[in-house]
Amino acid sequence: MLDRYIRFSLPGSSLWTNGRFGLGILTAAGENTKQYHNLNKHVLSGNGNNRIDSKIDSNDTVNNIPVYCPGLTDGSLGDMLYFHSVRNDPGLIVDIVQDIRAMNGEAVKATPRKTGMIILGGGIPKHHICNANMMRNGADYAVFINTAQEFDGSDSGARPDEAVSWGKIRSSAKTVKVHCDATIAFPLLVAKTFASRMKPLH
């Protein structure tokens, strides 16, 4: 869906009249959302997360890594949930309790007993991951990678030490916050850590 680079300063009205949506320095063609909507007609008819998982063509599905979406109703998927419920009243009812039980359960029942968090960006996902670890009296390791600052009191900008005060990270934990664009920093970290131990796929 993302197919064109633009300037941050490009007027939104110009994109709108040309049938494009702005996403930072990227744009998406309006007609591409039709394919997205058609996909979600099928997703909404059953177990949403399992169906979304099956559409992600990556090692996540190969390694059976669960995919959670704590901000399910925020954005295009939320739009589809709304449209579906209006056209099929009462329509689909999404139960998010199953997801939060599964996500928090992963932290609480972690084996071995230590947990670590690598959080790219901030917002709702960062908060959910930290909260899950609060249920087990804190994570043992934490790496935050984002460009948010703490002066505005945002959760995204909060340092790991703020999470320690909530019991989301243990006071004995090894933590670091990297002030950098995650799309730059994370591939470099992976290349020097996880990827160096991976066998090449042939």
From TrEMBL:
- Record keywords, A-Z: NAD
Q: NAD: present as a keyword of the record?
A: yes
Family annotation (Pfam families): DS
Instruction: Reply yes or no: does the keyword NAD apply.
Output: yes
Q: Which cofactor does it need?
A: NAD(+)
Q: Which domain of life is it from?
A: Eukaryota
Might you report a single GO cellular component term?
A: cytoplasm
The GO terms this record gives for MF are: deoxyhypusine synthase activity
> What's this protein's family per the entry?
Belongs to the deoxyhypusine synthase family.
Q: Quote the protein name from its UniProt record.
A: Deoxyhypusine synthase-like protein
Native organism: Trifolium pratense
